[in-house]
């Protein structure tokens, strides 16, 4: 399902396939069933244009049903910010009409959750608000992350007011601010031939920072894995700096942003994301963002032939790819950049394994073997595709996808890549090494090099 956020951009929403998420959904469904069955809640129209006046008896019932529907959809991540705010505003107005004396007192309270008096909302509501909207740990830990069950409709409506207040505070201050020109370009993020060069201009040469943040937010990864927004921003800025370190014409931050956007297109437009768990999507997006981190602008073969320290460190095997992974995880070990700080030990191991598999598979020397393996799988009567291998192939294809995009984009990428090849050729000439293919700027015929 897709929702449109306040800024008009597409928000990705999906049902998690993990057992934990299923348990959460069951809890919310259990709460709702005492008032309305699941089908009834799913059929609720959350449009706010034709609602009864807030001071009528029907309004309280409408608000109660809508809050139960909102809680259900919030649990699934299937609600846009605009609809959430409109419905919470309506519920707040209903509560003001029914409990006028109480809401006058609440209106004077500070929006901060820490200032809410213990008896203002039930304990289970307070814990849910803390864990969902503030990045703070609940005062009392629940077993297996169980979501609270509200004791009454009044409690749910009262919770709605605090959700509305805290949501406004979080959305206005916690998340990174996007320049208007960046927002305009990102509205085309779901297109195959997304213009990352236009994003680079709008983002003051920081495409990874804004595109990476937007993607992780759209897929709900920031909320799902409790990634502190400031930490994510710092991590993406550090990654961007690493991509720019060697001033490469091609393997730079624009390429990283372009590949990450293409991976998003494949996840979203093909329905691939519905086959994956939240953690697998998180790993896939991060792998795309860091897959060429600190690229030197030279090939693996150059490192091997010239005997660089990197080649010695990784024993001539997938030299650059090993470095991209190792250096990226070193960045994430820094507390200021640790976007994985709230993953469990098991989640971290799975995440790291997936990222390693995917980035190593971008080594072009594995290209034909990957194609052969996938073709062989598809010839089987009942093919069983390993997720890691499938995602590795997806990232690899996205990494070399620009020939399939709009001509002007492909041509620009091609000329940048050739210039990078030529710079390597210049280094090879200085070192007395033979020219690698397409690296001799004086003798390479550009047109004939394009065999596609």
From TrEMBL:
Co-factor requirement: a divalent metal cation
Active site: 251
EC number: 3.1.4.-
Sites where the protein binds Zn(2+) 2: 292
Entry's cofactor comment: Binds 2 divalent metal cations per subunit. Site 1 may preferentially bind zinc ions, while site 2 has a preference for magnesium and/or manganese ions.
Keywords: cGMP, Hydrolase, Metal-binding
Domain PDEase span(s) in chain numbering: 174-452
Keyword Metal-binding: yes
UniProt keyword Metal-binding, yes or no: yes
Any one of the GO BP annotations: signal transduction
Pfam families: PDEase_I, PDEase_I_N
Enzyme class: hydrolase
Gene Ontology terms, MF aspect: 3',5'-cyclic-nucleotide phosphodiesterase activity; metal ion binding
Entries under SMART domains matching the protein: HDc
Residues involved in AMP binding: 251-255, 292, 399, 450
Gene3D superfamilies xrefs: 3'5'-cyclic nucleotide phosphodiesterase, catalytic domain
Residues binding Zn(2+) 1, per UniProt: 255, 291-292, 399
PANTHER family (UniProt xref): CYCLIC NUCLEOTIDE PHOSPHODIESTERASE (PTHR11347)
Family label: Belongs to the cyclic nucleotide phosphodiesterase family.
Protein name: Phosphodiesterase
Gene source species: Zootermopsis nevadensis
């Amino acid at each position: 399902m897709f929702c449109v956020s306040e800024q008009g951009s597409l928000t990705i929403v999906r049902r998690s396939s993990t057992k934990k998420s299923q348990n959460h959904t069951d809890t919310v469904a259990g709460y709702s069933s005492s008032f309305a069955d699941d089908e009834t809640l799913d059929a609720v129209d959350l449009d706010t244009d034709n609602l009864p006046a807030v001071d009528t008896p029907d309004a309280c019932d409408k608000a109660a049903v809508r809050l139960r529907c909102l809680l259900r959809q919030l649990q699934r991540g299937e609600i846009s910010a605009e609809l959430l705010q409109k419905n919470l505003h309506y519920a707040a107005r209903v509560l003001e009409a029914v409990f006028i004396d109480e809401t006058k007192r609440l209106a004077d309270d500070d929006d901060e959750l820490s200032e809410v008096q213990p008896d203002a909302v039930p304990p289970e509501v307070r814990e849910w608000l803390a864990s969902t909207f503030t990045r703070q740990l609940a005062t009392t830990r629940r077993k297996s992350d169980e979501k609270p069950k509200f004791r009454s409709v009044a409690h749910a409506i009262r919770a709605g007011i605090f959700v509305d207040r805290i949501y406004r505070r979080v959305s206005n201050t916690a998340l990174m601010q996007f320049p208007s020109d960046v927002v305009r370009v990102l509205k085309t993020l779901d297109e195959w031939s997304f213009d990352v060069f236009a994003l680079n201009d709008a983002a003051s040469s920081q495409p990874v920072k804004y595109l990476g943040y937007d993607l992780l937010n759209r897929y709900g990864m920031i909320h799902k894995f409790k990634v502190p927004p400031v930490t994510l921003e710092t991590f993406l800025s550090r990654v961007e700096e690493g991509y720019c370190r060697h001033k490469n014409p091609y393997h730079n931050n624009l390429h990283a942003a372009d590949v990450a956007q293409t991976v998003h297109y494949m996840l979203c437009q093909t329905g691939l994301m519905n086959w994956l768990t939240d953690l697998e999507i998180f790993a896939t997006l991060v792998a795309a963002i860091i897959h060429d981190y600190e690229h030197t602008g030279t090939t693996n073969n150059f490192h091997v032939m010239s005997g660089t320290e990197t080649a010695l460190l990784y024993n001539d095997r997938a030299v650059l790819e090993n470095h991209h992974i190792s250096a990226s995880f070193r960045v994430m070990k820094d507390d200021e950049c640790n976007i994985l700080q709230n993953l469990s030990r098991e989640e971290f191991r799975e995440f790291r394994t997936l990222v390693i598999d995917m980035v190593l598979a971008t080594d072009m020397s594995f290209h034909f073997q990957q194609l052969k393996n996938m073709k062989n799988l598809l010839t089987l009567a009942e093919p069983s595709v390993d997720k890691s291998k499938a995602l590795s192939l997806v990232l690899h294809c996205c990494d070399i996808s620009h020939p399939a995009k709009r001509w002007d984009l492909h041509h620009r990428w091609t000329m940048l890549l050739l210039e990078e090849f030529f710079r390597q050729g210049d280094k090879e000439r200085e070192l007395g090494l033979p020219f690698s293919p397409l690296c001799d700027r004086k003798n390479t015929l550009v047109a004939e090099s394009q065999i596609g």
